[in-house]
Design goal:
Largest sheet of chain A: 4 strands, parallel
Shape of chain B: globular
Helix content of chain B: 25-40%
Strand content of chain B: 15-25%
Shape of chain A: globular
Radius of gyration of chain A: 21 Å
Largest interface: A-B, 49 and 63 residues
Structural class of chain A: alpha/beta
Order of helices and strands of chain A: HHHEEHHHHHHEHHHHEHEHEHEHHEHEH
Oligomer: heterodimer
Distance between the termini of chain B: 23 Å
Number of helices of chain A: 20
Number of helices of chain B: 16
Radius of gyration of chain B: 23 Å
Largest sheet of chain B: 9 strands, antiparallel
Strand order of the largest sheet of chain A: 7-6-8-9
Number of strands of chain B: 20
Distance between the termini of chain A: 63 Å
Strand content of chain A: 5-15%
Chain lengths: ~400, ~500
């Protein structure tokens, strides 16, 4: 067995000191209460958190362990949420640097091993294969949705340019599953007097393919999208999807080199418009709001403050933080292909977040990722909870547009 | 032995979800925090959820003569939480992690031993309490059971409270035969809160303190709790490198001698090589940026620091003044008050860095760097001698160390109970599979060398428990006494076989 992708990160594997901070670290002084949601919802053996997985990866690399179906399954039971990375030798103090925090990038290890499984034909999980097959055919992960229908949600008569300096990258989840949010965003842009382009030739960003190890497909999608964006003169690409954002912002430059455009999340964009006085959230909303950091937006890309600032700009809102936030945030459970391959696990993890929401006595859990929103909503339904799950865009829209 | 039958028996005890004999699951238990040691896979991993389940597992192990290794956080640096010989059962106790009782009448907390020191102290912290000694430096992952099995110290509070075992007032232990006993005041049928060890006849809890998992499986513990004092001060000093060991020795000794009782919470000494390395001379990048010169170079210095606690401002200030005076009389110069100014004591105490300060020494210094620890307890006054002798040992083994790109020495000395320090000694080297045998040889050699100089190890695991015997540390009658206790409690020798060659 040749683990050529994993081998690139050999130094990381052999730098793990096995201290175990990736197991259950609790450090109230920095707001850390736990590390791995999968471990918490598993039988709890060492293979269900980073330390054991790194040892297992070494065993695979050294040929001591065979990559059985069960081994593959273990490595796919991970959201690649980055919590283990942000627990490993992290001083949380700028002037104190623990070297291993600079050496081991857990997410890269998990994705490399998945890429090897794919190349060996033993990964990804069966449900992922269906999704990827459809993405290859129709450039979106939601069979039987056709690419041709991606922009069907745009209200009739609405004139949206296909080219422009600011391009709205709508992704897949909302166009095919919950287009209302996109319409709300467009209404906000109209209110702000900002012209955004939406191009019908843009495909799935490639996040799912890259996260579950199909690099070939992920790179193909990335190259296509960058080419399209280049050709339509994009200077700023805005997306509301945390998964798309991470992929455009971090993966694309690794695949194609420096991007000829800037990537912004809608929360960053909305904040700019509010600060510039172009958007005026005026209607008071009497919600007790808390915010869930999407991993791809927060831990992966460091966007923590813009969504919070936008929420706080809405009058009437009572904002409370969850117990686990920012780098120590608790994943919703949906990412890394877990929602599609292990839906029950995903919802169990999301329930943790709903419980935390009620613990801080919030009635509204706001997030900034359609994938998180969907999984958190599934948890609310499963728990028959009264917590309302919204996107930041929903809040701003209700306060700005709805009269 | 019919392996399927054993699996079924174990499943009957804990349920099929919590037992595994799958290769990939077992492989993840083939190491503890011991990068130089080879992997040793058990045959089964079991995660019991109660004392009764632990007892039943040990009875099965006795019936079928299966070795059992208890493990919780898996943080033993010397191979203590994985099998010494391949096979057997690893008993993963981390499911047993509940706080059972916080009793403010006796100021004790009763816990299941699979709880981490960090989890426990977070819960206590909500009520303004802590466990005093916060366990080992790996306390974010390490558990109460492992700490008590090693006399752990170093996670904070070592100078004030001593090792964690000094703060334990009762234990529930499953003996290797599966019999459950309670030691401490709990041993009485008429006492439900184990408030003390110091009555009721022989202090049998001592058998299990620091036993490295040899004599029983700790399932519940009663620990003292203390109110976190309202006031604290943290100060870090630069010390000239000339005669640094002697100066630091005098400072630590006088701090201990003169500070008001119960004020000195922690006191550390980083020798010059260590302090300069932390500032980046060895590791290629600064670990502690405040220890750099204005030009960004590692400052040529050694470091001492203290953390003091007090219930009144007056006591705090009086002691602060006294300790500062002592340090400065011996040539120490205070660094700035903030963490970025090099006040590492502040990070240590206020940001829970005490559970991370050791990471760079546990091989976390760079890619593929491994550590082999010989950390031990010694009197403060022996610091200069230990340093000198370790230098001699390093010179003698310089050619072999060069082969593995190794460095030997002491990371830091930290004050523990009495006039003693914990000495974080050992070797760091580059990980190369072909070098591991030589690394282990050097490790064992240094361990025996230090043993003969009077090093007293507390975390012995596989490597150090054997090295002390090989070095001839124990007299014949003492070792025979230990052997008789072991074989009486564990007639089939199923629990942690191999440690101390027993």
């Amino acid at each position: 067995m040749e683990f050529s992708n994993l081998r690139k990160y050999e130094d990381m594997l052999y730098s793990c000191s096995r201290v175990g901070d990736c197991r259950v670290s609790v450090r109230p002084s920095i707001g850390k209460y736990g590390v791995c949601p999968v471990l918490e919802h598993s039988p709890g053996f060492e293979v269900y958190f980073a330390r054991g997985r790194i040892l297992l990866a070494r065993g695979l690399l050294e040929g001591k362990i065979k990559p059985t179906e069960e081994v593959v399954r273990v490595f796919y039971q991970c959201m690649v949420c980055g919590s283990c990375k942000w627990s490993c030798n992290q001083s949380f103090e700028e002037s104190v640097v623990l070297p291993i925090s600079q050496i081991i990038d857990h997410d890269k290890i998990w994705e490399a091993i998945r890429a090897d499984f794919v190349e060996m034909g033993i990964g990804p999980m069966p449900r992922h294969r269906e999704i990827l097959a459809w993405t290859r055919k129709e450039y979106n992960p939601y069979p039987p949705s056709k690419h041709a229908d991606r922009l069907k949600w745009i209200p009739e008569g609405e004139k949206i340019p296909q080219k422009g300096k600011i391009v709205f990258f709508v992704g897949c989840t909302n166009p095919y599953r919950a287009p209302d949010l996109l319409i709300k965003y467009l209404e906000l842009m109209r209110a702000a007097g900002v012209e955004v382009a939406i191009n019908p030739d843009l495909w799935c960003c490639g996040s799912i393919a890259l996260r579950v190890g199909d690099r070939k497909l992920g790179e193909e999608l990335a190259r296509h999208n960058v080419e399209v964006l280049k050709n339509i003169g994009a200077e700023v690409v805005v997306t509301h999807c945390a998964g798309c954002y991470r992929t455009l912002k971090r993966d694309y430059p690794e695949i194609v080199g420096e991007l000829p455009f800037e990537v912004k999340h809608t929360t960053e964009h909305l904040l700019e418009l509010i600060k510039d006085g172009k958007l005026h959230p005026e209607k008071e909303l009497k919600y007790k709001v808390t915010y869930h950091d999407p991993c791809h937006l927060g831990r992966h890309c460091g966007v923590f403050d813009p969504p919070r600032e936008v929420i706080r700009s809405v009058p009437g809102i009572e904002f409370t933080e969850l117990r686990r936030i920012r780098y120590n945030s608790w994943c919703c459970g949906a990412g890394g292909g877990v929602k599609s391959a292990f839906p029950d696990l995903a919802v169990k993890i999301a329930k943790d977040r709903i419980k935390e929401t009620t613990e801080v006595k919030a009635d509204t859990l706001v997030t900034a990722c359609p994938f998180c929103e969907r999984n958190l909503t599934d948890a609310v339904n499963a728990m028959k909870s009264r917590v309302r799950v919204l996107d930041v865009i929903d809040l701003v829209h209700e306060s700005t547009i709805t009269k | 032995m019919n392996e399927d039958r054993i699996l079924r028996l174990l499943e009957d005890v804990v349920g099929s979800e919590y037992v595994s004999c799958e290769e990939h699951v077992l492989y993840a238990y083939s190491k503890s925090n011991d990068p130089a040691l080879p992997e040793r896979m058990p045959d089964y991993v079991v995660r019991p959820g109660s004392t009764e389940e632990v007892a039943q597992i040990l009875k099965i192990a006795n019936r079928y003569r299966i070795p059992v290794i208890p493990r919780s956080g898996g943080c033993c640096l010397t191979g203590g939480s994985r099998p010494i010989e391949p096979g057997g059962i690893v008993l993963d106790l981390t499911r047993m992690n509940r706080v059972l009782d916080i009793d403010e009448d006796t100021m004790t907390v009763t816990v299941e031993c699979g709880i981490t020191w960090a989890q426990l102290n977070a819960i206590l912290g909500e009520r303004g309490y802590y466990t005093g000694c916060l366990g080992p430096g790996s306390g974010l992952c390490a558990c109460v059971g492992g700490g008590l099995s090693h006399h752990s110290v170093g996670g904070g509070g070592g100078a004030k409270y001593g090792p964690c075992t000094a703060n334990c007032t009762g234990l529930e232990v499953v003996l290797p035969t599966g019999v459950v006993i309670k030691v401490g005041a709990w041993a009485s049928n008429f006492i439900d809160k184990s408030f003390t060890l110091y009555a009721g006849g022989p202090m049998l809890a001592g058998l299990f303190f620091g036993d490295n998992g040899l004599l029983g499986v700790k399932t519940k513990a009663v620990l003292r709790i203390y109110p976190v004092p309202e006031y604290h001060a943290c100060k870090t000093f630069a010390l000239p490198t000339k005669d640094a060991d002697e100066r630091a020795t005098r400072i630590l000794y006088e701090w201990r001698l003169k500070a008001d009782h119960g004020v000195l919470y922690d006191a550390f000494y980083f020798p010059p090589v260590s302090a300069i390395a932390y500032a980046g001379a060895l590791f290629g990048q600064p670990l502690i940026k405040g220890w750099l010169t204005e030009k960004g170079m590692p400052r040529d210095m050694a470091v001492v620091f203290y953390v003091i606690e007090a219930h009144t401002e007056e006591t705090l200030h009086a002691n602060e003044k006294l300790l500062d005076k002592i340090a400065m009389e011996h040539g120490a110069e205070p660094l700035g008050e903030e963490i970025h100014e090099g006040n590492i004591a502040k990070w240590f105490y206020e940001k829970q860095g005490h559970w991370q300060i050791y990471h760079p020494l546990w091989c976390g210094t760079g890619p593929r760097i491994i550590a082999m620890t010989t950390e031990h307890i010694a009197p403060i006054k022996r610091i200069p001698m230990i340093q000198k002798k370790l230098d001699e040992w390093q010179r003698k083994h310089s050619a072999e160390l060069a082969k593995v790109k190794g460095i030997a020495g002491v990371g830091q000395f930290l004050m523990v109970e009495g006039f003693n320090v914990e000495v974080t000694s050992g070797i760091i080297a580059e990980y190369r599979p072909e070098n591991m045998e030589l690394c282990r040889k050097l490790w064992i050699d240094q361990a025996k060398f230090l043993t003969r100089l009077g090093a007293y190890y507390y975390m012995l695991g596989e490597v150090l428990s054997m090295a002390v015997i090989d070095a001839g540390a124990f007299s014949g009658p003492y070792y025979e006494f230990l052997r008789q206790i072991k074989y009486t409690l564990d007639p089939n020798r199923i629990l942690s076989p191999g440690k101390f060659y027993l």
